[in-house]
Amino acid sequence: MSQTPTEAAARRALLLNLSPWLFFVGLIVLWELVCRVFSLPNYVLPAPTAIFSAFFDVEFSRWMMHLWATLRVALMGFALSIVISIPLAIAMMRSEFLSRTLYPLLVVIQSTPVVAVAPLIIVMMGSDDPSRVLITCLLTFFPLVVSTATGINETPEELIELSRSLDAPLRRETWQIRIPYAIPHIFSGLKVAITLAIIGAVVAEFVAAEEGLGYFIQFSTSFFKIPQAFAGLFFLAAVSLLLFKSVQWTQQIFFAWSLPKKK
Amino acid sequence: MEHKSERAFVRMTGVGHRYDPTPGSPMAVQNIDLDINRHEFVAVVGPSGCGKSTLLRMVSGLLVPSEGDVSVFGKKVNGPRDDVGIVFQKPTLLPWLSVRKNVLFPLKHKFGRYGAQDEKRANELLAMAGLEAFADKMPDELSGGMQQRVGIVRALLLNPDILLMDEPFSALDAMTREQIGFDLLKIWDEQPKTVLFITHSISEAVLLADRVLVMSKRPGSVLDLIDIDLPRPRNTQTINNPRFSELTDRIRNHIYEPDAH
Prior knowledge:
A: 83% helix; B: globular; ABC_transporter-like_ATP-bd (chain B); ABC_transporter_ATP-bind (chain B); ATP binding (chain B)
């Protein structure tokens, strides 16, 4: 062949970049074909085109209203769990007493299915934002505590010795050495937590809500508007993906040093 | 110019340490008596686990010996002291700070801030180590040898009287290692320090030091303290000096003999 090695490499790279998109498009086309060939009814599996038109049948302002309701709860829960988890992880690193006392409780909270606890929380705290934020927070804080604690503990012993030999205050050891060292781990935790935050918000809406994308999906399903429910589902997935990407971009822009080195 | 003081700068008397404080538990080091003069370069060699690093930690005050005393200029060491600079086996630079900021880190960490004067000093030290072109680079853009040079410069920032080096070159390849050793001597010449240099390499110890302390297997104690009467400045020619092989042989015999029978 007349291809030079660099051309071949460039083609390979292009194919590698395009392959997820090609796969995605291929899947949608296959889906559409299956629906048409077997003339599946909408309630069994709506065709992508049906979902697409259902999306535009819903007014934009309604989408925005539902989006805002879900996003608000997810982001508040996410923020609250950052505010709780990171100081908690630091406190647990500093005090063995605290870590021994609290860790079992954290594991118990983590192993209790939040879906099962959610109705109780709604009954106890009412069906407003605070209870939804709490449900979201219960789901998101554990991965954050664990990842922060892991990162903090991985600080090289030499740097701690350096800090001690300088007789620096513990506060600076925490802020200038331990927390920055934990940043890569904190970001892996944040990536898990942000997707869980959306799940938490949707779970809370399933239990009791009058708005939100989770509520919208449930409500559409109960009226057998399946293409509309699918439209809501895809919208929700897109939002979740965008939030995940935002966390990734934040790391790329502000903490570029913490990314794994490209070979 | 100050001459070598009559009184020892660093003095260890009857120093011993056990990490497990229960009486009768094994000692990490024992019966260490050592006087180091001001601006003297002392290297410590010995088999792995013989307590070389323990010795270094006791001088820095990070570790208080369970027996005996360590004193610096007549004052007993009983806690971390800030007039020592420590260079570790790994460079342990902070990956989120530029080279210059890494060098300034001890000030930032100790006092929370630094001034223009300090930045100037950092730049001068970097220039002395031949790193001025890399001041704004990030640590991962530097080779291992250059990173360790930054580690040395960082240890010099607070202008310590004592430089403690814990196998600082053992992670480097042989060629870089030899070069950085001579560079260290140049820096030591310009900025005289009392150096305690831990190493696994007998030839490195002889090549760099004024005196070499040979330690026994655990529990570490002093087997020999050898004056290295090789002329300075030392360079690649020093290795060809017949005296160099005599001295390395003498140390080697100490280290291998006890295993021979």
